[in-house]
Amino acid sequence: MNTISLLAATGQDSLMQTPETQREIFEFVLDDTLLTLSFVSNIALAGLTILFIVAMARGVTDPRAKLIIVATMLISVVSISSYTGLMSGLTLSFVEMPTGHPLAGDEVLTMWGRYLTWAFSTPFILIVLGMIAGSNLTKITTTVAMTIAMCVTGLAAALTTSSYLMRWWWFVLSTSFFLVIVYVIMVDWSRESERTGTADLFNTLKILTVVGWFGYPVLWALGVEGFALLEVWMTSWGYSVLDIITKYIVTVLIVLYAVNEPDTITADADYGSTLRGVGVPADD
Asked: Where are the transmembrane segments (predicted)?
């Protein structure tokens, strides 16, 4: 009887150490104040950003400016949904690290919901950046496809448990897609923004975006999913701060520019823009 009780107690301790159910993971998050704050802060900021956009965009009439603003708002719509998933434990899991990993054999909290955030929000960032630069639909579509591939292979790197080497191979693939996106932003779109007259704004946006985005693979490598030099809450806060810079700060700058409906974003012939000499359609 004592042996059975001991086994039961050991099993209970193991369960508490490695939560398995969604409720247990949710309680695990709540017990870690710093981890919780990294999620809650972004939920609050995403909500405030949405309200800011709605308030600022009420007087916008040009259809292309509206498209830019709506695409920008969807960045925060995705973020508030995704961070709620993380906070609730819905998009968190404990994954056992493979042989060769510094935490081999241990089950580590993996925030795979962040990859969903990036897979759905990053395309909107690229759509907006491409439109502000005055790029064409082909280049914008290409960067969107590349960013989805980047996020999916990044998710594979985080969830692969069969081999430590394979985790890093997925990471290399993800990084290669990322570098293609960086090239388009830094070279092609920078050149096009000079032609369309949006270089001042675009240069600010590209610096915030590209520099911030380089932080994500660095955090992955240093965090528990890579070399395990950072604790989970440190990695989470790192991602959250980068999200604040590359999403909400960038969003505010874009909206403040677009609501003035400058000619540089309303006179192009693509994406439902207002052409010179053509009246603006009345609102419904």
From this structure: 34-55, 67-95, 115-133, 140-162, 168-186, 207-230, 236-259
What phi and psi, each to the nearest 5 degrees, are found at residue 35? -65, -45
Please give the domain boundaries of the chain with CATH numbers for all domains.
19-263 (1.20.1070.10)
Question: What CA–CA distance (Å, rounded) separates 210 from 171?
Answer: 18
The Cα 222–Cα 245 span in angstroms is 20
Integer Cα distance of 173 and 170 in angstroms:
5
Structure tokens at 135: 């790029």
Beta strands in the chain (DSSP E): 93-96, 107-110
Distance CA 98, CA 137 (A): 42
Residue 96 φ/ψ, nearest 5 degrees: -75, 125
Give the integer Cα–Cα distance in Å for 273 and 175. 34
Provide DSSP, 45-76. Answer: HHHHHHHHHHHHGGG---HHHHHHHHHHHHHH
265: Cα separation from own chain's centroid: 25
Q: For residue 272, how many other CB atoms are within 10 A of its CB? A: 11
Q: What is the pLDDT of residues 27-82, one digit of tens each?
A: 999 999 999 999 999 999 999 999 999 999 998 988 889 999 999 999 999 999 99
Q: Which residue's structure tokens are 């996106």?
A: 181
Spell out the residues 6+ positions from residue 162 whose beta carbon is closer than 8 angstroms to its own: 98
Asked if residues 72 and 259 have their Cβ atoms less than 8 Å apart, the reply is no
